Structure of Multiple sugar transport system permease protein:
Amino acid sequence: MADASSIRVRIARASGPVPRRAGGPSRSRTARLLTAPTILSIVVLGAYPLVFILAAAFTDSTLGRPFQEWVGTANLETILADADVVASFARTVAYAVVVAVVSVVLGVAIAVALERATRAGAVVRTLLLLPLITPPVVVGTLWKLVFNPGGGLLATVLPGVSLAPLSTTAWALPAIGLADVWQWTPLIVILVYAALLTQDPSVREAASLDGAHGAGLFRHITWPAIAGTVIAALFIRLVIALKVFDLVFVMTSGGPGQASTVTTYLIQQVALKEFDIGRASAITLVFAVIVTVVTLVVAVFARKARHD
């Protein structure tokens, strides 16, 4: 009688060769080949500009002749001593914070109203997407026409009042902010509305039966459910506002004077009009540090709200 080992050998021979396990060396090589273009794109599109900016910031560089001479921190010292550059940093951060907060507050209010409205709100949600899908250049042109004192919408609605906000030092940047809020608030509405749809209706009904209504219902029931999404939306909106350029370029060209010159517009002016790539790179480097600090603060609050 054949022993157990000989029986196993015969079964193995009859069943043929054992198939190779999936995920072997050949599959690993295929995975590397498929991911190589993505990694290469990230390196070329991300690392190269960063290295270029770092090198230009510490050298005497012009648009036609970059990296002429190593100057150390001279470019950084020059821009930090320039009152216009420092003012653009403060102006950009203040603009971004105000615009982001206003957009989030309006977005939350509109999203809550839509969620509690009738089913016919689908038409309203579709209309709200129109500003979001409109190119920034078109938005800037549209609002420039609205603020035009010679026959614009504002002048037509208020015929007896002489208003030219884009030509006024105090109102040029707020006017741009209004256009910015109009364009990007629908993004906040979409994000918050999606978060509201995930809330269990029975929880709200139970709270209503216990006497929670209006502001109390929102504070104790609705807000804890959407707080993480709202703060994440604030983070996204802040980043978008910090890099505003198109609206400034189309509506005011940084004027009047330096009243609406944000940092991104200043970088473009220094690099492409003054041809000083070294100074423009130094401004970009300092601005990147400022943006990192501002966004990290918001990111900390976003993480805390998400874990609460």
In short: The beta strands are 59-60, 69-70.
